[in-house]
């Protein structure tokens, strides 16, 4: 049994941690949040220079040609730092979609630019405040062009192109959907208000926007699911990193703050809360590790592992971020304190690929399928 | 990252498989063992036979050194054996306390001669051991115990009472922690001994549990004489010695044995019809199973991380400490919900009428004990908060005060 990251991967994680501690203290996500910037472009440049955007892109397309395990450790550190950059959209989603379904020509067009940071990609699915289902998605692809409105699209203003879930058939079945890839320059884009402005989201109007299919026509829903599964594991590492940061922050405050003549960290109500954070975080970390294994080995268990990692990480970050505020008392509810940065990011990450309810449903479905097989 | 056995591990696994195949019966499909109907005496006799077989094959305590009848094996080998044995219908449970806690404490503190005398019979299941720590007034706060021992020549004379002593009624020996000095603060006045449960002056009275069984006992000591040679550690060092035992306890109890899990729950939900079809199609049921699944699997993968550290010769991280506090409440909630699904019929606890031979009902009735034994949910959270996260201890009113001057309640 070898259920751990290698020494090299741990070294990479340390490096990422040092880099982000230096380049991305909490004033960075705060600045993007307060100024409503699309993202922190200095930090993004620095990240690109580190080569992280090309982590899993093969060398022939200008990437580093490393594996997903390397990407997992980077994700954890980005999550810890609540980095205000379009990394998840461009790397976990757009890059993964291209690696999974792109034609040779599409790979050659997009991957080198993604690796070099010349281009930022995103993944456009949602069409409003409701789950994306075979009934609810209306955006169409017809005659080489997309029409419809996608909202919210993560990093929609930063992105140069998007992989879009589109309808190519009329019926409410999975076979009616495809993925298409489109440059966003000619679309109409506006910033949309969200509960986590440290990661901007946009509304994108496609009006006969030139696009090309990514993967087979009719294979879109299946590809969408597969991209989501892969991204869920990388998101889980971001979530675990964030949840860990909440625990550290709550712990530091519990040691510093005195009430009734002693440290609040000596009261059991606080101690047990923090112990529960620790327990949830460790369970989430272990589930994420399992996801990392499934992703890196392309195991048949991937859908189950992804859903397990996703649910566990969403629960852990939610708990840690809300109880971190509680541990801080009134101070925790101020704009000035950093607690809300995590609280926002926790919920945003927990919804971005679909919420806990939907992922629990996927988890049980995958368990049923495995049991039948 | 992988879950593959190394070449050595695969080799060991195949040896274990062969041995089990030749020596034990595989579990039946419905997990029925028929053991519920057997008397405890019969079960113990059967367990002793099986334990001797395991000892002969050197599978009884794989990680113990060869001089003690182990094979100097790795913790991974131990796990491999456990995984394979779990596929077989073999008697379990009688020797865990002795081999998991008592004998390791002896190994740390007893003389060579004593080890020569006691280790083998314990390993072979010929002599059963129990742990005499908890008292009516001292459970979580076990250092507050009152059973006292006074020196008389080369002997110590013990008077007092222990309680919740699992297996005392069939045990041959026990390790016993007592107060030898009430004039110093409580942790400093304790001393550890081992003794025969047949020593005159010991009286064992079984206590009936809510689960209906009577596996734990009250143990009374009336002028029980223990030779000083059976002392483990120095006089006044009993707390330190007890910590050795308790550390092993957490390793022993963290393991499994938690009754039905998500798998059994899925099986039930697949069979059971609710108002709107099979329970497994019901959103609430699916939601709950998902919760238990991620906690159960999270724990399993946490164990894999611990094992990985062990197999690399590293000390496992503190994550190893979360086991029981996750498993025990989960077992209780899961059992309760499974009974809920059975609706009015969930009341029944009947081998034939209740699904899974009433496994959920049985688990529902044993889970409360699981949440208490070997450190309560609350104490385990304190331990995580203090030892893992480094938060301060509670205000302690008992640290600098002589034991005899401490306030007491019920
Ligand atoms: C099935 C079973 C088998 C057992 N087998 C053995 C055995 O073989 N040998 C043996 O020596 N003992 C055994 N025990 C005893 C067991 O170790 C104790 O029951 C346990 O440590 C709790 O102690 P207590 O019962 O005195 O409860 P208490 O310590 O009185 O606890 C009562 C309640 O108060 C809470 N509490 C206590 N202190 C604190 C604190 N500091 N902070 C927060 N909450 C607190 C507890 O969590 C619990 O909820 C067994 C118990 C059970 C249930």
Structural Rg of chain A: 20 Å
Mean pLDDT of chain B: 92
CATH architecture designation of the largest domain in chain B: Up-down Bundle
Percentage of residues assigned to helices of chain B: 40-55%
Instruction: Write down the overall geometry of chain A.
Output: globular
Structural class estimated from helices and strands of chain B: alpha+beta
| Total helical segments of chain A | 11
What does the largest sheet of chain A look like? 4 strands, mixed
- Give the N-terminus to C-terminus distance of chain B in angstroms: 53 Å
What's the CATH first level of the largest domain in chain A?
Mainly Alpha
Instruction: Strand order, main sheet of chain B: write it out.
Output: 1-4-5-8
End-to-end Cα distance of chain A, whole Å, is: 26 Å
Task: Determine the structural class of chain A based on helices, strands and strand pairing.
Answer: alpha+beta
Q: Compute the number of strand runs of chain B.
A: 10
Task: Provide a compact summary of the structure.
The complex is a heterodimer of chains A (373) and B (410). Chain A is α+β, with helices and mostly antiparallel strands and 373 residues long.
Topology of helices and strands:
The complex is a heterodimer of chains A (373) and B (410).
Chain A: H1 7-23, H2 27-35, H3 41-50, H4 68-80, H5 87-101, H6 104-116, E1 121-124, E2 140-142, E3 145-154, E4 161-167, E5 177-183, E6 188-191, E7 201-210, E8 212-214, H7 220-256, E9 258-259, E10 262-263, H8 268-296, H9 302-328, H10 339-352, H11 356-372
Helix pairs in contact in A: 1-4, 4-7, 5-6, 5-7, 7-8, 7-9, 7-10, 8-9, 9-10, 9-11
Chain B: H1 7-23, H2 40-56, H3 75-85, H4 96-109, H5 112-123, E1 129-132, E2 148-152, E3 155-166, E4 173-179, E5 190-196, E6 202-207, E7 216-227, E8 231-232, H6 238-254, H7 262-271, E9 273-274, E10 277-278, H8 283-311, H9 323-341, H10 355-370, H11 377-388
Parallel strand pairs in B: 1-4
Antiparallel strand pairs in B: 2-3, 3-7, 4-5, 5-8, 6-7, 9-10
The structure holds flavin-adenine dinucleotide.
The site of flavin-adenine dinucleotide (FAD) has 19 residues of chain B, from strand 1, strand 3 and helix 11.
């Amino acid at each position: 049994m070898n259920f751990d990251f290698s020494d090299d991967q741990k070294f990479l994680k340390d490096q990422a941690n040092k880099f982000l501690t230096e380049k991305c203290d909490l004033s960075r996500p705060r600045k993007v949040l307060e100024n409503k910037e699309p993202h922190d472009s200095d930090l993004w440049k620095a990240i690109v220079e580190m080569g992280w955007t090309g982590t899993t892109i093969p060398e022939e397309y200008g990437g580093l040609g490393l594996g997903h395990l390397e990407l997992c450790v980077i994700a954890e550190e980005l999550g810890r730092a609540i980095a205000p950059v379009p990394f998840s959209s461009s790397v976990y989603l757009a890059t993964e979609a291209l690696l999974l379904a792109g034609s040779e020509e599409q790979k050659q067009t997009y991957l080198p630019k993604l690796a070099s940071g010349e281009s930022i990609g995103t993944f456009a699915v949602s069409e409003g405040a409701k789950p994306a289902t075979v009934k609810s998605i209306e955006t169409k692809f017809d005659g080489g062009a997309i029409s419809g409105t996608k909202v919210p699209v993560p990093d929609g203003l930063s992105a140069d192109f998007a992989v879009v879930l589109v309808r190519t058939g009329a019926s409410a079945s999975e076979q009616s959907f495809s993925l298409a890839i489109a440059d966003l320059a000619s679309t109409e884009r506006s910033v949309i208000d969200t509960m986590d402005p440290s990661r901007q989201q946009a509304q994108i109007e496609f009006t006969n926007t030139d696009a090309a299919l990514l993967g087979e026509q009719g294979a879109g829903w299946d590809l969408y699911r597969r991209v989501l599964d892969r991204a869920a594991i990388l998101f889980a590492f971001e979530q675990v990193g964030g949840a860990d940061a909440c625990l550290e922050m709550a712990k530091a405050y519990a040691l510093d703050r005195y009430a009734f003549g002693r440290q609040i960290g000596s009261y059991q109500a606080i101690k047990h809360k923090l112990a529960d954070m620790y327990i949830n975080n460790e369970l989430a970390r272990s589930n994420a590790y399992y996801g990392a294994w499934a992703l890196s080995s392309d195991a048949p268990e991937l859908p189950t592992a992804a859903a397990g990692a996703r649910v566990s990480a969403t629960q852990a970050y939610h708990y840690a971020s809300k109880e971190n505020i509680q541990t801080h008392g009134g101070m925790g509810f101020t704009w000035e304190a950093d607690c809300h940065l995590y609280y926002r990011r926790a919920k945003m990450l927990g919804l971005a690929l679909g919420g806990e309810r939907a992922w629990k449903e996927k988890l049980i479905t995958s368990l049923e399928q495995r049991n039948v097989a | 990252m992988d879950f593959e056995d190394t070449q050595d591990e695969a080799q060991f696994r195949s040896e274990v498989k062969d041995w089990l195949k030749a020596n034990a019966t595989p579990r039946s499909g419905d997990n029925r063992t028929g053991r519920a109907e057997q008397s405890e005496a019969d079960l113990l006799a059967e367990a002793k036979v099986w334990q001797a077989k395991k000892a002969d094959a050197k599978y009884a305590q794989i990680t113990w050194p060869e001089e003690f009848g182990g094979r100097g094996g790795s913790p991974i080998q131990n796990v491999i054996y456990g995984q394979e044995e779990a596929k077989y219908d073999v008697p379990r449970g009688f020797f865990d306390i002795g081999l998991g806690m008592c004998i390791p404490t002896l190994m740390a503190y007893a003389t060579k001669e004593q080890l020569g005398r006691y280790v083998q019979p314990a390993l072979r299941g010929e002599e059963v051991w129990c742990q005499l720590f908890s008292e009516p007034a001292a459970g979580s706060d076990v250092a507050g115990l009152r059973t006292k021992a006074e020196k008389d020549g080369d002997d110590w004379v013990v008077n007092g009472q222990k309680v919740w002593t699992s297996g005392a009624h069939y045990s041959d020996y026990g390790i016993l922690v007592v107060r030898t000095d009430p004039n110093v603060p409580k942790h400093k006045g304790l001393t550890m001994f081992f003794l025969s449960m047949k020593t005159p002056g010991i009286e064992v009275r079984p206590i009936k549990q809510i689960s209906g069984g009577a596996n734990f006992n009250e143990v009374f000591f009336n002028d029980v004489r223990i030779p000083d040679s059976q002392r483990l550690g120095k006089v006044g060092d009993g707390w330190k010695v007890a910590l050795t035992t308790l550390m092993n306890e957490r390793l022993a109890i963290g393991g499994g044995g938690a009754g039905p899990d998500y798998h059994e729950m899925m099986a039930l939900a697949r069979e059971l019809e609710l108002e709107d079809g099979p329970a497994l199609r019901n959103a609430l049921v699916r939601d709950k199973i998902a919760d238990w699944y991620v906690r159960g699997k999270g724990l399993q993968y946490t164990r894999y991380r611990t094992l990985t550290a062990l197999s690399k010769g590293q000390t496992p991280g503190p994550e190893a400490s979360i086991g029981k506090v996750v498993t025990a409440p989960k077992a209780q909630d899961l059992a309760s919900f499974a009974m809920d699904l059975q609706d009015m019929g969930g009341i029944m606890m009947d081998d034939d009428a209740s699904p899974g031979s009433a496994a959920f009902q049985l688990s529902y009735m044993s889970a409360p004990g699981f949440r208490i034994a070997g450190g309560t949910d609350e104490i385990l959270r304190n331990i995580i908060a203090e030892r893992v996260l480094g938060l301060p201890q509670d205000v302690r009113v008992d640290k600098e005060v002589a034991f005899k001057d401490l306030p007491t309640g019920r």
